């Protein structure tokens, strides 16, 4: 997987641009589960509750429940994916 060497500001700008174009930014469930596990969250329970595609805004409460701030997903996962 290619790493994006984007600053947080650039990452947020790209994400905002995608949203403005009407694109829904979703992350793969497995990617989110790996992030939850890295942070010491209950990734097994998260696997049962998270949908297959996770929108950091729409599913923000679920992410927080498992110890991940929605903006952190954008910074960490989004940066790796080139957002």
Q: Can you put this structure into words, describing what you see?
A:
This protein is mainly alpha-helical and 83 residues long. The chain has a domain at 24-81. Helices cover 58% and strands 5% of the residues. It contains five helices and two strands; from the N terminus they run αβααβαα. The protein has helices spanning 8-20, 29-38, 43-49, 60-65, 70-81; strands at residues 27-28, 53-54. It has a two-stranded antiparallel sheet with strand order 1-2. Helix 1 (8-20) crosses helix 5 and helix 2 packs antiparallel against helix 3. The chain is globular. The two termini are 13 Å apart. The model is unreliable at 1-11 (pLDDT under 50).
Structure described in brief:
The chain is mainly α.
Tally the helices: what do you get? Answer: 5
Question: How much β-strand is present in the residues?
Answer: under 5%
The helix content, as a percent range, equals 55-70%
Low-confidence stretches: 1-11
Major sheet attributes? 2 strands, antiparallel
Distance between the termini: 13 Å
Strand order of the largest sheet: 1-2
Structural class: mainly alpha
Give the H and E element order.
HEHHEHH
Radius of gyration from the alpha-carbon trace, in angstroms: 12 Å
Output mean pLDDT.
73
């Amino acid at each position: 997987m290619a790493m994006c060497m984007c600053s947080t500001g650039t990452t947020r700008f790209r994400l905002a641009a995608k949203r403005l174009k009407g694109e829904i930014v979703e992350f793969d469930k497995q990617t989110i589960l790996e992030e939850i596990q890295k942070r010491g969250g209950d990734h097994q329970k998260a696997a049962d509750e998270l949908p297959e595609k996770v929108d950091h805004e729409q599913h923000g409460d679920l992410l927080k429940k498992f110890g991940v701030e929605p903006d952190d997903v954008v910074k960490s996962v989004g940066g790796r994916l080139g957002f």
